[in-house]
Amino acid sequence: MSKLKITETSLRDGHQSLIATRLTTDEILPILKEMDNAGFYSMEVWGGATFDTCLRYLNEDPWERLRKIRANVKNTKLQMLSRGQNILGYKNYPDDIVEKFLKNAIFEGIDIVRVFDALNDIRNLKKSIEVIKKEGAHCQCAISYTTSPVHTTEYYIKLIRDFENSGADSICIKDMSGILLPYDAFNLVKAIKEVTTLPLEFHTHCTSGVAQMSMLKAIEAGIDIVDTAISPLSSGTSQPATESLALSLIGTEKDPQLNLDSLNNTAEYFKDIIKKYQDNGTYNIKVLMTEPKTLQYQIPGGMLSNLIFQMKSLNASDKYESVLAEVPKVREDLGYPPLVTPMSQMVGAQAVFNIISGGRYKIIPTEIKNYVKGMYGTPASPISEEIRKKIIGDDEVITVRPADLLNDEYDKLKAEIGDLAVSEQDVLSYALFPQVAKEYFEKRSNSITYENLYA
Ligand code: CO
Questions:
Q1: Which of 141, 176, 411, 442 has its CA 20 to 30 A from that of 117?
Q2: DSSP states of 29-97 as a string?
Q3: What are 150-203's pLDDT values in tens digits?
């Protein structure tokens, strides 16, 4: 037994979960030296929605943010989250974009890359794993945790073996919906620790009210690393609070031995910052409300609120309960995909159509058709002949890795964006978020001219 390690998520998942990823680089920089002294194993600071939000809402270059964070964090490993072949976007990118993106991220200071695939299809992680290892960073492979008749302990153990064989340096149980119950967490961690010596990390969300209990059971079962967020950016739809866990473990062999003064100073700092987001309405009290229905319906909290909103806008709020009952049926039809982006939106939309269009699969979104054609990867359980016919008729299902069908794109995109991009990193921003990045570049070039004129 050795001390528990802590991954601090405030600067990525923490603010992504509570305040729509709105922390600016200027708000992040002043507290980094303090956080760097706290004794965290790593700080998750990049990836997920941070990249998009920088360009789209904050008029910031996400690469510049990473450089500035790295310059201020000397002792602690920096970590990012990547969706494998989707990188930070919502579709599969060709291999050359995946390669250049990860290469640049690691060059700018990322030490640990956590990669996952929404369908747990290892083929969608292969390229990322290869590049991360080649660039000398730590490759953490995450399982997208979900529950279903096919998501058994054996299923996860097989996945762990595949990760290990593919070169993973550590494993993460990524419970993005906060549905891993305490005793299931205990059993899953025990089972995984029996088959691998790789470090094991637990990532969860407090959404349904069980995260702290599950985290403690995971610790009792021998988890090596857990994800927490500093108190003002914790709880609700975010991670458990860093200080509370650190204080709970004092005097035990698992004590993470964090610097409590650093934690308190960091918390005080963010309390002030958060106040601005409370006042302007970005920090909505709804994100702090425990949603145990997530456990009952096996539907993530964010998806529940989306469905309420959709049914209201369709003037069909009376059919909300029918849609909730339809979601698990659609999920079963589709081979039990984990309800994580983009599957949660896709399954939700199909369930709504099945209920309001007067028949199941009378209206089918293109994304669902592409999914059934295998364009997202292979689901955990095969889709029945009957459902497949209903959704794509006689269209073919691909059996190769989806990205094998994509041609390299970098040179084409570089030519397309032209002089607006002044670096390889700009071209990569453009590859991921074409419209948003272009607008950002245009604003940037205008402001440079303006400054030059009046300098
Ligand atoms: Co998360």
A1: 411
A2: GGGHHHHHTS--SEEEEEETTHHHHHHHTS---HHHHHHHHHHH-SSSEEEEEE-GGGTTSSS---HHH
A3: 999 999 999 999 999 999 999 999 999 999 999 999 999 999 999 999 999 999
pLDDT single digits (tens) 409-442: 999 999 999 999 999 999 999 999 999 999 999 9
Distance between Cα 27 and ligand 1 center (Å): 21
Cβ 365 vs Cβ 346: under 8 Å: yes
Residue 174 CA to ligand 1 centre (angstroms): 7
Q: pLDDT confidence of 308, banded at 50, 70, 90? A: confident
Q: Answer whether 56's CB lies under 8 Å from 88's CB.
A: no
**Residue 274 CA, ligand 1 centroid: distance in Å:** 19
The dihedral over CA atoms of 235, 239, 241, 247, expressed in degrees to the nearest 10, equals 130
Alpha carbons 321 and 269: distance in angstroms, whole number: 43
Helix H or strand E segment including 383: none
Domain range 5-279, CATH class: alpha beta
Cα of 13 vs centre of ligand 1, distance in Å, is 6
Helices (H), 82-208: 95-107, 126-134, 153-166, 182-195
Which residue in 318, 294, 298 sits closest to 308, CA to CA? 318
Q: Does 294-401 carry CATH code 1.10.472.90?
A: yes
- Please give the distance, rounded to the nearest whole angstrom, from the Cα atom of residue 394 to the centre of ligand 1: 38
Q: How far is the CA of 237 from the centre of ligand 1 (A)?
A: 9
pTM check: above 0.85:
yes
Centroid of ligand 1 to alpha carbon of 444 (angstroms): 31
pLDDT of residue 448: 65
8 A C-beta contact, residue 112 and residue 79: yes
Give the gyration radius of the chain's Cα atoms: 22
Residue range 226-231: mean pLDDT, rounded: 98
Q: What residue segments make up the domains of the chain, in order of their start?
A: 5-279, 294-401, 409-453
pLDDT band at 455 (very low <50, low <70, confident <90, very high): very low
CA 176 to ligand 1 center in whole angstroms? 5
Whether residue 102 has pLDDT greater than 50: yes
